[in-house]
Amino acid sequence: xxxxxxxxxxxxxxxxxxxxxxxxxxxxxxxxxxxxxxxxxxxxxxxxxxxxxxxxxxxxxxxxxxxxxxxxxxxxxxxxxxxxxxxxxxxxxxxxxxxxxxxxxxxxxxxxxxxxxxxxxxxxxxxxxxxxxxxxxxxxxxxxxxxxxxxxxxxxxxxxxxxxxxxxxxxxxxxxxxxxxxxxxxxxxxxxxxxxxxxxxxxxxxxxxxxxxxxxxxxxxxxxxxxxxxxxxxxxxxxxxxx
Length: 243
Description:
With 243 residues, the chain is of the alpha+beta class. The chain contains 9 helices and 6 strands; from the N terminus they run αβββαβααααααββα. A 6-stranded mixed beta sheet has the order 1-6-5-3-4-2, sandwiched between helices. α2 (69-85) links the parallel β3 and β4 (90-95). It is globular and about 45 Å long.
């Protein structure tokens, strides 16, 4: 009888440990400390949100969470890069809403809904700039609706798209691609040394990419510049060169 009781207690303890581990949140505070790690990031498709120069030889991909304070801190750095160096790269934003952030998915749906009216990055800017105004709200939808109104969106269409299966599916697709890559913190940045095709909504082969951890604007700019140089000097970039 004592032996049965002993093993029952052990099983309960192990079961509880597994449950607690399963419920642990994904990390948040800034890019993970694995600068330079390579990965095969899904190529850009017509469904991605892209800003910058499509002819550039470099693509910067961010997996971000709108409610993440570190992502909000990086937002002005990326914005400055696009304004000052946008001819040298293109920027792709993909969603990675952390489970501990209750308002991260609604924020992503708001951006997706705005994107369907051609205003994804305008909404993206407003959401990050106003993060402290909505992050802890029980229901931030009215704030996002005010942002939509300020962008002169069709509000009826915005609400429809906000609640649509398409918006939710788009966010979930980004989330799953991040999980497959092993992303576990936000923001996570990758640099691709060539520009993927955006001719169709179907993903082509994954792009060999480098995970980066820039700490400031100058490091961001330097990494992009170096990737441009590497792309220009690569054999693929000079197909007519003679051996």
